[in-house]
Amino acid sequence: MTYKRLHNLVEGLCIASGLPKPRVYVIDDPAPNAFATGRNPKHAAIAVTTGLLDTMNRVELEGVVAHELSHIKNYDILVSTLAVTLVGTIAIITDITLRMMWWNGGRAHRSGDRNDRGNPLALIGIVLLILAPFIGKIMQATVSRRRETLADVSAVRMTRYPPGLISALEKLQADSTVTHSASMATAHMWIEQPLSGVNDTGRLGAWHKLFQTHPPLAERIALLREI
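The chain above was modelled as a monomer; its predicted structure follows.
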């Protein structure tokens, strides 16, 4: 079997945690990274990069795999999807309301109502419609950061060996390779922030932090050291 070590680790952790084995994929990418996807444990998959397999030893790889399996066990992909869908629904409702208000306003204008000086609700609706995409990204990032922290803690409980995941995160922290297989749409799924420029500091540092889908690796490592 190709990547036998990886499959053995996945099978062992799934048996220990009572999860069905997800589909396992390997992505040809030199950057060490991994992600999980699936709406529930029965319909899930995890993927790791070749860079991760080349970089991690057995206990470190076990920690990463446990982190991804924790995402599956905690239904994190479903939670993130629901959060973004909620914001999208609000945007759609706002758009429909605005169209109805403009249509009714046009009828009032044609009927000769000269006292209509505009509805303040229309202005509020326009602002909400404009801000909805930004609110959606911020909400997605906030939910993702919290679920990443939960997955770290759950992974340590699964392996019962905190140093494994801590060492893996330290290696990821030291590596600056950009994951070419990632995009802004999938950034929240990976074990670490996969794109360059996301940790920018300076005048816009606080603004950038709103859209970061992962807590800083230093914070994650410090939290795990306290366990």
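The helical segments are 4-17, 50-55, 58-73, 76-110, 120-159, 162-174, 205-210, 217-225.
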